[in-house]
Amino acid sequence: MADRPAHHIDSRSSDEKEDKVAVGTTDAPFHSEPELGYTRQEAADAHELTGGFSDINSGFDEQEIKRVRTRIDRRLLPILGALYSIALIDRTNLSAARIAGAEKDLKLNVGQNYTIATLIFFVPYIIFEMPSNLLLRKIGPAKQLSAIATLWGIVMMAQGFVKDWKQLVVTRFFTGLLEAGFFPACVLLVSCFYVRRESQVRMSAFYLVSVGFSGFSNIIAYGISKMNGLGGLAGWRWIFIMEGLATIVLGVSAYWLIIDFPDRAVETGFLKPEERDLILTRIQRDRGDAEADPLTMAKLRKYALDIKPWIYGIMFMNTTLPTYAYAFFLPVILRGMGYSIRDTFLLGAAPYCVAMVMAFGFALISDRFFTRIPVIVTQCLLTIVGLAMLFDTTNKNVMLAGAFLGVSGANGNIPAILNFSQNNIVGQSKRSFVSVVVVSFGGIGGIFASCVYQSKDAPLYRPGLYATMACQAFNVVACLCFAIYFSWANKKVREGKKVVEGKPGFTYTI
């Protein structure tokens, strides 16, 4: 069995072939043609003996695996990275517009106007994530992601024509509603193509590319703001209009670029049947959930009773808090340090470029040594140190260095925690549920940032910094608790005394 590739067609009798099924399923094979070539018992034994990973490439040519994986990398990751880049820019460009003139024109410096405008985005963002993700397989990734990106681009353009802060709040609400289904869908789609040991680099690639590009958003915004007066419009209005137009163009293009889930990618012409079966069999051997299963209310209730997804969500909230804080308030902090508007825009991009390199380096280490928790803890500590350095108001260089460390640690932990949560669950329906829960808590992190970083605390926002540091400390403690429990559980699994995630032989990734 170990030497027989997944797409091998054997010559056994029809009675024997009727027993061929996907690992972890009960009745049907992945596809009727070509057959996988494994009996139910063979597949189950393989998964238990390999512990979910060590023998996943058995029977396949290593060069063929690399070729298929590279082809997926080149097609899937760039478009998701580009779309998420524009999503990050669109949801955080309010800070750039603020210092480019919107603060005065829309009275964003009055009371809680700016806080409300930043906070309102996350209300529909949280509420509509689950419904949107439930529709993903029915509608298809290309149609759904392309449509919502195009629509939020239209709303972003409309934001350039608002007359007061109340109208701004309305456009921010609809932007949040439309972006709600995007990021969890990307997380789910990426996780369905790669085995666990390959996923950290890929998750980081599409996210960190977007971080790098969005880091230049302040420079782009500064350049666009120089259109001030063109068509009788203020420069800050052109920021919204031009970036909204770019979103529409990219959203329309995404329809032809985004690929479907691997089990349906043959129908769309992206994969050959043997390539599809290579992907699905490796995933099946690794974690036993290549077969799609619908998310029912019974499953939803069962998954909701598991405490782990909620802890993953809290950890994600705690790491999105500093990323949103830096996105919304770093330009204001830099301005408060005495930098000019031009230098504020230029310096605001540099930490994100460094973050992209540092975090991707940590992702390579994480996949190379198949470890998650040590990397998350290290990046939490970097974030804490970076935030602490912002308190040194006597030395601008120390404060600026702190921004570099904080932005790097916080943004590196976004894909790290997402991947950690996806690595330690089995079943596509649960994978979908967990991605929504985790990303929803990320939206709560945005609300948290909007509330604890208040205008009255400008320019250093000390209460917000204290709260953010405390959240990183929580993540460190949570990681230590997970490490202890997962190590114990894995030991019991290897002794044959425990089954985790309902899958014999499956072990947690630590």
UniProtKB/TrEMBL annotation:
<feature type="transmembrane region" description="Helical">
    <location>
        <begin position="206"/>
        <end position="224"/>
    </location>
</feature>
<feature type="transmembrane region" description="Helical">
    <location>
        <begin position="397"/>
        <end position="420"/>
    </location>
</feature>
<feature type="transmembrane region" description="Helical">
    <location>
        <begin position="114"/>
        <end position="136"/>
    </location>
</feature>
<feature type="transmembrane region" description="Helical">
    <location>
        <begin position="465"/>
        <end position="488"/>
    </location>
</feature>
<feature type="transmembrane region" description="Helical">
    <location>
        <begin position="76"/>
        <end position="94"/>
    </location>
</feature>
<feature type="region of interest" description="Disordered">
    <location>
        <begin position="1"/>
        <end position="35"/>
    </location>
</feature>
<keyword id="KW-0812">Transmembrane</keyword>
<feature type="transmembrane region" description="Helical">
    <location>
        <begin position="174"/>
        <end position="194"/>
    </location>
</feature>
<dbReference type="GO" id="GO:0016020">
    <property type="term" value="C:membrane"/>
</dbReference>
<dbReference type="InterPro" id="IPR011701">
    <property type="entry name" value="MFS"/>
</dbReference>
<keyword id="KW-0472">Membrane</keyword>
<feature type="transmembrane region" description="Helical">
    <location>
        <begin position="345"/>
        <end position="366"/>
    </location>
</feature>
<feature type="compositionally biased region" description="Basic and acidic residues">
    <location>
        <begin position="1"/>
        <end position="21"/>
    </location>
</feature>
<keyword id="KW-0813">Transport</keyword>
<feature type="transmembrane region" description="Helical">
    <location>
        <begin position="236"/>
        <end position="258"/>
    </location>
</feature>
<dbReference type="Pfam" id="PF07690">
    <property type="entry name" value="MFS_1"/>
</dbReference>
<feature type="transmembrane region" description="Helical">
    <location>
        <begin position="373"/>
        <end position="391"/>
    </location>
</feature>
<dbReference type="InterPro" id="IPR036259">
    <property type="entry name" value="MFS_trans_sf"/>
</dbReference>
<protein>
    <recommendedName>
        <fullName>Major facilitator superfamily (MFS) profile domain-containing protein</fullName>
    </recommendedName>
</protein>
<dbReference type="GO" id="GO:0022857">
    <property type="term" value="F:transmembrane transporter activity"/>
</dbReference>
<feature type="transmembrane region" description="Helical">
    <location>
        <begin position="310"/>
        <end position="333"/>
    </location>
</feature>
<feature type="transmembrane region" description="Helical">
    <location>
        <begin position="145"/>
        <end position="162"/>
    </location>
</feature>
<keyword id="KW-1133">Transmembrane helix</keyword>
<feature type="transmembrane region" description="Helical">
    <location>
        <begin position="432"/>
        <end position="453"/>
    </location>
</feature>
